[in-house]
Batch of 3 targets.
Target 1
Amino acid sequence: MKQGTQRARDTGFFAHPSFDGHEQVILAHDAETGLKAIIAIHDRTLGPALGGCRMWPYADENAAIDDVLRLSRGMTYKNSLAGLDYGGGKAVIIADPHTDKSAALLRAFGDAVERLGGIFITGEDVGISDRDMEEVATRTAHVRGIRANGLGDPSPFTAWGVFSAMQAAVRYRLARPSLDGLHVALQGLGHVGSRLAALLHENGARLTVSDIDSERLDEARRRYGASVAPVEDIHKTPADIFAPCALGGFLNRKTIPEIAAGIVCGAANNQLLTAEDGPFLRKRGILYCPDYLVNAGGAISIAPPRRELSAEQMKARVGRIGDTLMQVLSRADSEGAPPERIADRIAEERIAAARQGGHRASA
Ligand code: NAI
């Protein structure tokens, strides 16, 4: 996205393949609690950097750096396309949420966010719950997605946005008025995936699901009559829609030829492993609904600094994701370009216009 950020003499961090002219990348460490976090601020042209905090037992530091660089860049695009006056940032904590999480560690992370003085505002992501964020909020005001200043957990709004996008995608691709009678292969039954499963079931869709957590599978079987696919085979399910709602990078050279659904629409961030994977999906005739467009519901719900809308009003706002997707898909077809390129272009145009207008967030 940014010009002139890679130079031949950059051989270390600045030459990292996922580095994209990020404004700041901060390492936060606390010896007492064992906190090891990385906060990446990608771009603040539209406002302070807004992005969640992920806790994950990364295999090594490079995997964490790669994730935070990619996710923070994604937030710049997500916030821009969603029309929010925020830039993009993200935090990752290198830890296992099942064994390493403690209130003290979360508070130490809160201190690290507070030290940034408001240029970065955070919320929950994978491995972090809204309750965890309440702990973080005991140390910093720069937290969203908690009951104290808004509608709380963003996941239901993310699920609602993905659901609205699916409705638009089936109207566009299958000329179907609703999801009734359609078959969705859903990967990941976490905060977002479980709520999406409920919405799909309520609206008459048939579900095949996968997760690494067998309790979640049992619940989906019991509550929604879902069929279960092995983790490595969910994308091969002959469904109408494949919905990746676990981790990123799942759409790649190996998996794309195996996808049996005609539409890919899900909540996971950074679904495409490389930039070539979008055009590859298109070549295979699969309609890819750009991840950061369809999963923006959570960001939209936490964006207001105070509770301004009721949950119903917020759902109506988030539901506009379906309209934006329609515009992107029809522009993609008329220009013969993959949908994610069109989404990128719209997001970049808004940032470029703000830059030209001299708009710059103050800290
Ligand atoms: P979560 O951590 O609550 O759920 C992830 C689920 O995926 C868990 O049930 C986990 O067991 C499962 N899983 C992990 N590896 C798997 C695999 N190989 N196959 C199948 N299942 C697997 O996370 P959450 O919050 O539901 O987020 C899901 C995705 O959506 C993430 O990529 C996240 O970044 C993205 N997202 C979430 C938002 C939110 O509001 N929570 C907002 C925007 C994006």
Note: The longest helix spans residues 61-81.
Target 2
Amino acid sequence: MEIIDEAKNIVLIGLMGSGKSAIGRTIAKKLGRRFIDTDRFIERKFGKTVAEVFDQSGESTFRALEKEIIKKVSQYIGIVIATGGGVIKDLENFKYLKQSGWIIALYASPDTLYKRIAGKRIRPLLLNQEDPVKKLEEISNERKIMYAQADFQVDTENKEINDIADEIIGLLETNRQASGFDAGI
Ligand code: S3P
């Protein structure tokens, strides 16, 4: 039997480039759970990329679609969820995700975040920014209060995806044992 509570979702939050998708996919594989990336879910459901939604309809439309999807995936049981970086800007999103399971916040320095995402998928919030690292720092400062509400905080700087996935699984197992699982409470 899986030592981590099977009913609870494992939800990854954090800034763009913090590794939510890669780490989430790895955790899901290791635990034999289903994996959902909410940005990809939005793209499949609405037939547009996140960048196209931002460009054609604006951020508020994207946030409304994101909220709809968060409500939906929060009803799933025992899955791993990688969220978009701004999901926690909406308190209700955070509440739904929290009720569905464990929330894990991933961190890295703005320099590292930028190195990881540069040249990859378009991040609308960084488009046309003269200094994208500074912009990431600003976004980080705006959001850190919300990221800090997560159940677990994990630093991803200078670590491999596989090791971070193991670290998170270890944290959840330790937590489960500490909460009386072993004693049958
Ligand atoms: C956003 C992060 C993106 C995506 C959208 C907005 C944000 O997801 O949801 O561009 O507000 O931080 P990633 O965190 O996967 O890059």
Note: The mean pLDDT is 94.
Target 3
Amino acid sequence: MEKVAFLGLGNMGGPMAANLVKAGFAVSAFDPAQAAMEQAAQNGCEPAESAAQAVQGASAVISMLPNGALVKELYLGARGLLQALETDVLVIDCSTIAAGDARQVIAAASERGIRAIDAPVSGGTAAAAAGTLSFMCGGDADAVDAARPFLEAMGANIFHAGPAGAGQVAKICNNMLLAIHMIGTAEALQLGVDNGLDPKVLSDIMRASSGGNWSLEKYNPYPGVMDSVPASRDYTGGFAVALMLKDLGLAMDTAAGSASSTPLGALAKNLYQLHGGDEKNQRLDFSSIQNLFRRPAGD
Ligand code: NAD
């Protein structure tokens, strides 16, 4: 059985690793969080005591970590994982990080003769569980092709966006747009509710009209409109406000670097900053931006 090391078993990595197991790979998994390790073991992964132990005998390493600092700490430096890997191991980093950080890791891998790609994902936790994620890959074509058998076990769409870092650029463009249409959707739903409409009826109308979009149709932010989305479980699980803020920061940094004009992205970042200013909101799903527009009860 071909062995894959999976590092980072959170909201996304946990179900992604489980799909690799279902596809017939032996998955050696590591996450410093005990609860994540217990869940991974229940899903058929082999628990490892460290990242270094997880990669023993693996033909690929897949990482799904919260940010670039952690990805660089994992792979780079004298005690980094790249020093411990055999040269025939393929590195696939699925975390959303700065394109510059991804290029740094891929260049360091290349110096050691190791193939590596950036492969951030879109689709959210539901697509991670269903194995229908979209992967946006950056790197050499042969490395992306070598990654396909692993990515196909976890996703439905595999795009080669361009050279190293290009997957991350595609990802932050997508997430900036996602933040913008989530905020617009929440604002429109609240306007309807404040004027006596049932949010479910309004959602049905806009879905069949020109306001239709992914946030409205697949990830409705108004509680009770859709089952199985974070809005219907008090905004738990899903994609944390803190992570959306990270992605909007990456989008703004990228825009500054290319002198691009992104006024709606900047406003979206401001609104998420306002929402995330309350510490407890940082951990909630990003669709909880709906609460910024909701009136306190009795108002
Ligand atoms: P998460 O916080 O739920 O999970 C991250 C996991 O990484 C945690 O369990 C943490 O303990 C673990 N971790 C931290 N350092 C580690 C290390 N050195 N080795 C191994 N594990 C380590 O985050 P998430 O929601 O799963 O997101 C992961 C990445 O995917 C982020 O970069 C995020 O931006 C991106 N993403 C998330 C979503 C989503 O809907 N949640 C969608 C697309 C992309």
Note: The CA atoms of residues 188 and 202 lie 9 Å apart.
